[in-house]
Structures are given as structure tokens and as C-alpha cells.
């Protein structure tokens, strides 16, 4: 029953009529002598989503045919041009994101080399991409790409008033002590869900690291509270996160110790640059292939000591531990 030929316009017309009558995908597949997965994939990939007029959304056979033809035309661009394809692969291996590659090609000029980042993503996740293991070079690696229209906004979980654009200037300028940034360091999936949390005080660059057995948010927040709660209130005023699933229970911080939470914009982890740069330092000792469960708490503490006892140029070659201790001592004197 399986057929590997592309769906024709007439077949898409039949799919549209039967789908409108709410006939099951299995029955549509039997009517067309196609595999059920072909019909499922067709409805998923070529369903028209109208953001401005939602009532106009639906599977329309002419529109679907045009979308499929256009997708194949774009996708073939890399297959037709081996030189362009090789250049894209080289940039991916150098750590460039598809958007950076596309933007650089556009800057270089020339219609022949113009390529959208969506086309690069489609190539990476196509049959050729996994064969070359291109997905592991992406900034965010996934086994398969999530559909564009399945990416749900998290505005209710991370409200606008907590957005980083509303964070006070006194925090942005690092002129006040007690404001932290946090992130999760993720390792190879085959080694399990265990990860390591990185927490950095913005002014002193003092770093805390701790294990997590999984990426559930509530246990991570409990760990944060356990590590930060012993500090004076003024030493743990706020925490800045990205919008990862590990931080959706951020309200636990407010209830547990009165700490304010701030969140980066979507897909903008660079806005918490202090912890991102710290992660790069930690990766020297804990590369992605590390089996986190084999790393002892003593090894984690030793790594923290190494980071906190290393002089930093941004601190005028004082160590983070010296700066952190000095600020804690000043808070203690204020309380006396």
C-alpha cells in the first residue's frame, strides 16, 4: 500500500474534502491507497495557519500543494549546490546557528547564495542531516524538530512584569550586591536527565554549583532555596533565569525566601551573560559527555573553589570569594 511518489493536486483535493467531512485519516489513506502516516504528515505540514484570521485556518488543497512545492524547491537548493551545502555544513560545525549563517550569506550579497534559516533547519532535520550528524552542532539539539506552530507561548508562566526589560537599572549596572543569575548545564541524553545548576552573583561573580537528578522545576527551586536561604536577605534579592521548563516554578522562590525572579526574552539566553560565561568556564572541567551521576559532591565543591579562588580581570584581579566575603561583611556591619 505504501507509495513514495509525491501527493498530486487531485489527491490533495480528495484529502481536503474528506478531512472537511471529519473522515478519519485511516479511511482517507485507504481511499487514496496511501500509507496512513503519509496523510498524517500531509495534514500536519501543509495545514494553513492564519494568525490574523483564525477562522480561515484549515487544510486547503491548492494552498497545501503550493506549500509542498515551495518547501521542496527551497530544500533542493542545498542539494543542487554542493559548494553552498559544504559552506553551510562548515559553519554549523564551527558553532554558527542557522540564523547566523543565513544572515551572513545575505550580508555577502548575491541572489544565488541567499538562504533562509528555515531551509537550513529543514536540511539539518532531513534524511541527509542525521546521516551527517548535523543536529549535534545546533545551539539547541533535539532528536526531531518541533513543528513551528506547536511552540506554545509561555506568557502565562512567565508574566510580562517579570521580563528582563523591566529589571531595574541598579541590577543591570551591577552596582548593587545580591542579584544572581541561574542556569542548567545539560549533558548527553544517553547518560540520563541529571544536570548541574549554575548560580552566579552578578557583582562579585561568586559561583554555586549543585547536582539535579532531573529537570523538574520544583526540586530545582527547592535546591536553590536550600543553598541561598542561609544568606542575609540583601544577599539574595533577585534571580534571573531563561524561560526553560526547569524554572516554571519560580514562584517558590518568592514564597520561600522573598527573592524576586526576572526572565530573559524568548530565545535570548545571552541576556544573562554572567552565568552563560561561567558555564563556558565550567565546561572546561565538565564537558557535555560527562556522566554527571559519576561526579561526586566533593568534586563539585572543588570546582566551585577553583572558580571562586581564581583572580578575575573584571574584579581588578581580586577573586570572587574575596569580593563576596567583603560584601557579606558589609551587610553584617549594617545590621549591627
From TrEMBL:
Region (Disordered): 131-150
A Pfam family hit: HTH_38
Basic residues biased stretches: 139-150
Residue ranges occupied by any Integrase catalytic domain in the UniProt entry: 164-328
Keywords: DNA recombination
Key word Thylakoid present: no
Keyword Repressor: no
PANTHER family recorded: TRANSPOSASE (PTHR10948), TRANSPOSASE INSI FOR INSERTION SEQUENCE ELEMENT IS30A-RELATED (PTHR10948:SF23)
Protein known as: IS30 family transposase
Organism annotation: Rhizobium lemnae
Amino acid at each position: 500500500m505504501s507509495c513514495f511518489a509525491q501527493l498530486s493536486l487531485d489527491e490533495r483535493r480528495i484529502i481536503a474534502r474528506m478531512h472537511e467531512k471529519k473522515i478519519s485519516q485511516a479511511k482517507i489513506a485507504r481511499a487514496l491507497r496511501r500509507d496512513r502516516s503519509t496523510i498524517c504528515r500531509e495534514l500536519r505540514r501543509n495545514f494553513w495557519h492564519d494568525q490574523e484570521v483564525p477562522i480561515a485556518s484549515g487544510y486547503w488543497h491548492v494552498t497545501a500543494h503550493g506549500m509542498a512545492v515551495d518547501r521542496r524547491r527551497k530544500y533542493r537548493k542545498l542539494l543542487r549546490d554542493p559548494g553552498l551545502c559544504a559552506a553551510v555544513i562548515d559553519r554549523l560545525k564551527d558553532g554558527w546557528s542557522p540564523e547566523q549563517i543565513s544572515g551572513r550569506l545575505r550580508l555577502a550579497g548575491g541572489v544565488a547564495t541567499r538562504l533562509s534559516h528555515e531551509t537550513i533547519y529543514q536540511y539539518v532535520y532531513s534524511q541527509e542531516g542525521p546521516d551527517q550528524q548535523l543536529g549535534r552542532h545546533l545551539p539547541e539539539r533535539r532528536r526531531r524538530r518541533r513543528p513551528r506552530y506547536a511552540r506554545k507561548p509561555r506568557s502565562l508562566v512567565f508574566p510580562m512584569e517579570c521580563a528582563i526589560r523591566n529589571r531595574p537599572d541598579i541590577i543591570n549596572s551591577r552596582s548593587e550586591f545580591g542579584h544572581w543569575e541561574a542556569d542548567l548545564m545539560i549533558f548527553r541524553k544517553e547518560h540520563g536527565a541529571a544536570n548541574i545548576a549554575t548560580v552566579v552573583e552578578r557583582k562579585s561573580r561568586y559561583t554555586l554549583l549543585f547536582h539535579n537528578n532531573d529537570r523538574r522545576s520544583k526540586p530545582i527551586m527547592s535546591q536553590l532555596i536550600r543553598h541561598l536561604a542561609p544568606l542575609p536577605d540583601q544577599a539574595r534579592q533577585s534571580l534571573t533565569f531563561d524561560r526553560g521548563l526547569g524554572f516554571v516554578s519560580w514562584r517558590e522562590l518568592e514564597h520561600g525566601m522573598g527573592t524576586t525572579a526576572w526572565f530573559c526574552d524568548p530565545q535570548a539566553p545571552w541576556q544573562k551573560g554572567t552565568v552563560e560565561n561561567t558555564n563556558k568556564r565550567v565546561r572546561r572541567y565538565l564537558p557535555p559527555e560527562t556522566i554527571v551521576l559519576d561526579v561526586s559532591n566533593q568534586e563539585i565543591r572543588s570546582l566551585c573553589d577553583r572558580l571562586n579562588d581564581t583572580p578575575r580581570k573584571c574584579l581588578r584581579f581580586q577573586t570572587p570569594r574575596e569580593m563576596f566575603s567583603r560584601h557579606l561583611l558589609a551587610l553584617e556591619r549594617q545590621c549591627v
